[in-house]
From TrEMBL:
SUPFAM superfamilies named in the record: TPR-like
InterPro entries: PEGA, TPR-like_helical_dom_sf, TPR_rpt
Keywords, alphabetical: Membrane, Signal, TPR repeat, Transmembrane, Transmembrane helix
Domain PEGA: 137-202
Highest rank taxon of the organism: Bacteria
TPR repeat feature ranges: 48-81
Provenance organism: Pendulispora albinea
Transmembrane segments: 217-243
Keyword DNA repair: no
Signal peptide: 1-23
Protein known as: PEGA domain-containing protein
């Protein structure tokens, strides 16, 4: 009932309430909220009357949400099935058919024989009309005990024994449970529709990132290149000493009065240092080759672990060092590898 009809019904109810002096339920009201107006039952009744009257004015002004709030505040202070009727009218004016239906049904249940037959007949007609406007959603989950929410309001836990009544329109159905990622789906339903919302939750253990594993080729690669560097530096030192010894040998050959033993000693020194330098160069080359092998293994394993992060992963995954060759020549040392 909207517009003038709704306001007329509201005013009619206001007159009924006034004539009965706000005859709230016979049972004492529940403990009112903190505040001076609610410290005593008489004050609670006065506060309830004040809020109820304000709700009637707000309803007549078309501010249905504010009216609903005032009616519910009045009901909390002094529960009465008569106030439930006004709350149901406010819900219906807000096009919240589900809560209007539930509140009307509660009104009939709590009012009982106190409700006049003509009023009961009208309410039952309103209930039948509201039922023709709501939709129903059956929620299915893959996890028992999931907390189900409709538009942010918790409505129960899975498994639900029957479909949930919802207002027509776009609805957000959500589910959450400990140890699972929350899930929300959006559905659009019309009046009398029966829809299904499949909330399949994903376990957190499946989505958790695994702890990064250490690459077994890191240490060999680091040690290999460190040994290569030390060998290269040592080879350079002995190469320099060999060049100095060779230069001393030439000087002795050009000098007068140098004995045969001195020349032989200079030649032996040059040959020894040259041999050591050559051996160290070979060692450096071997270390470099082995370190290259370890590095290739390191990079291959890294790309394999990163998976889809690297576009070239399929090519690198099967990359293996098959052959490593070292070549010595007058210009230096060259290395070649096949994969």
């Amino acid at each position: 009932m909207q517009g003038r009809n709704g306001r007329a019904a509201s005013l009619l109810f206001a007159l009924l309430v006034s004539s009965s002096s706000l005859a709230f339920g016979q049972e004492p009201p529940p403990a009112p909220p903190a505040g001076k107006a609610a410290e005593h039952p008489a004050n609670a009744m006065a506060e309830a009357r004040k809020r109820h009257d304000l709700g009637l004015k707000l309803y007549d002004d078309g501010n249905y949400e504010a009216a609903r709030i005032e009616f519910e505040r009045a009901f909390a202070l002094a529960p009465s099935h008569r106030i439930l009727y006004n709350i149901a009218l406010a819900y219906r004016a807000l096009n919240n058919y589900v809560d209007a239906l539930n509140t009307f049904e509660r009104y009939l249940a709590e009012g009982g024989s106190e409700i006049q037959p003509d009023r009961r007949a009208r309410v039952e007609k309103d209930i039948a009309e509201l039922r023709s406007r709501i939709a129903r959603v059956r929620v299915i989950t893959n996890v028992p005990g999931v907390e189900i929410s409709i538009d942010g309001i918790v409505v129960g836990k899975a498994p639900l024994t029957k479909p949930l009544p919802v207002n027509p329109g776009v609805r957000k159905v959500s589910g959450q449970a400990p140890g699972y990622l929350p899930r929300t789906i959006t559905i659009t339903v019309g009046s009398t529709d029966e829809a299904t919302a499949d909330l399949e939750l994903e376990s957190l253990s499946k989505t958790a990132r695994p702890e990064p594993k250490s690459n077994p080729w890191v240490a060999p690669a680091v040690v290999g290149w460190s040994a290569t560097g030390v060998a290269a530096i040592t080879a350079g030192v002995f190469a320099a000493l060999s060049l100095n010894a060779k230069s001393d040998q030439r000087d002795k050959l050009e000098q007068m009065g140098v004995t045969h033993d001195e020349l032989k000693s200079a030649r032996d020194k040059t040959q020894t240092l040259s041999g050591v330098a050559d051996a160290l160069l070979i060692t450096t080359a071997v270390f470099a080759g082995v370190s290259t092998f370890f590095t290739v293994k390191l990079m291959t394993t890294k790309h394999h672990a990163e998976g889809e992060k690297h576009a070239r992963q399929p090519e690198l995954r099967n990359l293996e060092l098959r052959n490593l060759e070292l070549h010595w020549g007058p210009g230096g040392i060259a290395a070649s590898a096949s994969f």
